[in-house]
Amino acid sequence: MPAPLVECVPNFSEGRNQATLDGLRAALTSVPAVTLLDVHADASHHRSVFTFVAPPAAAVEAAFRAMRVATERIDLTKHQGEHPRMGATDVVPFVPVRDVTMDDCVALARALAERVGRELAIPVYLYARAATRPERESLPSLRKGQFEGLRERIGRDPAADPDFGPKRIHPTAGATAIGARPFLVAYNIYLDTAEVAAAKDIATLLRTSSGGLPAVQASGFEVGGKAQVSMNLLDIDVTPPATVFAAVEAEARRRGVAILRSEVVGLIPERAVIGAAATWLKCTNLMDHLLEAKIRAHGGPGLDDWIQDLAGPSPTPGGGSAAALAGALAAALVAMVCRLTSGRKAYAVVRNRVDAILKEAEAAQTMERALVDLDAAAYDLVRLAYLLPKDHPDRPAAVDDALLSAARTPLATARGAARLVPLAREIGAIGNKNARSDAKVAEILARAAVLGAVENVRVNVAGMSQPTRGQDLLEEAERLEREVSSPS
After folding, report:
1. Long-range contacts: 196-203, Cβ < 8 Å, 24+?
2. Pairing of strands 259-265, 185-191
3. Marked catalytic residue, from 46, 79, 83, 170
4. Which of 104, 163, 375, 401 is labelled catalytic?
5. Where in the chain is the domain with CATH 3.30.990.10?
6. pLDDT score of 74
7. What is the pLDDT of residue 112?
8. Where are the domain boundaries for CATH 1.20.120.680 in the chain?
9. Buried-exposed string 336-355: b where 16+ CB fall within 10 A, e elsewhere
10. Under a CB-based contact definition with an 8 Å cutoff, are residues 137 and 128 in contact?
11. Using 50, 70 and 90 to split pLDDT, how confident is the model at 177?
12. What CA–CA distance (Å, rounded) separates 57 from 440?
């Protein structure tokens, strides 16, 4: 089973100083398991966009390390560029890629925001799906007035109070927006004219806030002597690049202006490019006939690969992941017995209850399967904390925070599996009698999942320098252990 993966796309207010850009790159790649996919630096916008993927815990650590470098090296009081900005690290979005939900990314955003506010003394605003207020969902609205305007408002206007960090602007690093969102495509179209008014007019017509295309943010700039329509496509499945290009081309033609070229900033999902080709070719079934996609679909790693990873020398995946897998298998067996029962005349009297148990089992299966990977990711955070020098003043607190987080994941496994124990017993009693042994195996696996998960909670809390911080987690875990250990 592949590890969970998130994309992170930090934007820094630096596009000219190569030494600073190299420092940011080194900070990101200093974290194990980080894969830096793309760096786009623009001197006119005086901005850089780094795109990387990593397991969740590693993504948070890498983003923080880069933000620390940006705080040390970028001074917004001396910064001038075409692009609006309010921070040295202007924005840090997390994007779910594989086996990670949007809610998981919201949790990552909050964890990073809290640490940045506490350790770097930078005010942080949560935006997009992580926003705590509706008016903060939109990044342009949040960034209105930029660094200089926010410097005057924060600490005076309660509406400008950050979600984390001090109620005062950082004197040189400003403020930062951290959030969670779907894939966003930064897409620019250059017009064959120096008249920036044309780009501004077209941008106004296109952007959602002016009644234009849905899920589009747009502005007009002068870049390199040409007018540029600069856009963020917030949901390419709603408004793909091909639609945007056609709209800009039509508006430019009405003004007697040609399109010079377009560019993608950062990365773009391949379906957007293939979709544009399908539109141009007028080929409605192109996506169904891609050779590489068919090869990928049949070449992914399976259960055998995951078992080999479990048997390997790395501590992840480990016992916590194995406990969650036992929970997922228990849920799957409960669901199987339900399906072997539902719809059969001999069991018509219990059909409604069987269908209700099936619904619970399906939800539990999804949750426990996610926890298989999340447990490994949580322990990766512990390993990163232990990488801090032993004499570092923040090391004990960082290790305790990581262990506390690592204890919460198996506790979630135990909660879900504990609920499966009575469900397995019930479906074994009322369900298809030919599948009672399957229900019994489900009960045994669910109980094993609880006991294994509780052991992981226990060892993580015991490893803390201040184990009292995890006492409430331990008490709940041991209560669940007693519940499933009692005779049926």
Report:
1. 196/220, 196/221, 196/222, 196/227, 197/227, 198/227, 198/252, 198/255, 198/257, 199/227, 199/228, 199/229, 201/251, 201/255, 202/229, 202/248, 202/251, 202/252, 203/229, 203/230, 203/231
2. antiparallel
3. 83
4. 375
5. 5-180
6. 95
7. 95
8. 303-485
9. bbbebbbeeeebeebeebbe
10. yes
11. very high
12. 37
Q: Is 45 a catalytic residue?
A: no
Residue 13 exposure: Cα atoms within 13 Å on the Cβ side: 29
Q: Cβ of 369: how many Cβ atoms within 10 Å? A: 19
DSSP 47: E
Measure the N-to-C terminal CA separation of the chain; round to a whole number of Å.
Answer: 34
Give, in words, the CATH class of 303-485: mainly alpha
Of the candidates 318, 326, 320, 357, the residue with the CA atom closest to the CA atom of residue 443 = 326
Q: Write the CA distances from 465 to 378, 379, 396, 402, 410, integer angstroms.
A: 18, 17, 7, 12, 20
Q: In this structure, what are the phi and psi dihedrals at residue 345, rounded to the nearest 5 degrees? A: -60, -35
The pairing of beta strand 47-54 with beta strand 124-128: unpaired
Digit-coded pLDDT (tens) for 218-251: 999 998 899 999 999 988 888 988 899 999 999 9
3-state class of 389 per DSSP?
Answer: coil
103 is an active site residue: no
Question: Token digits for 312?
Answer: 């390997």
CB 146 within 8 A of CB 86: yes
Pick the CATH number of 185-285 from 1.20.1260.10, 3.30.70.670, 3.40.640.10, 3.40.50.1820: 3.30.70.670
Model confidence pLDDT, tens digit, residues 261-304:
998 876 777 777 777 777 777 777 776 776 656 655 555 556 77
Q: What is the pTM of this model?
A: 0.55
In 241-334, DSSP assigns E strands to: 259-265
Which CATH number is 5-180 given? 3.30.990.10
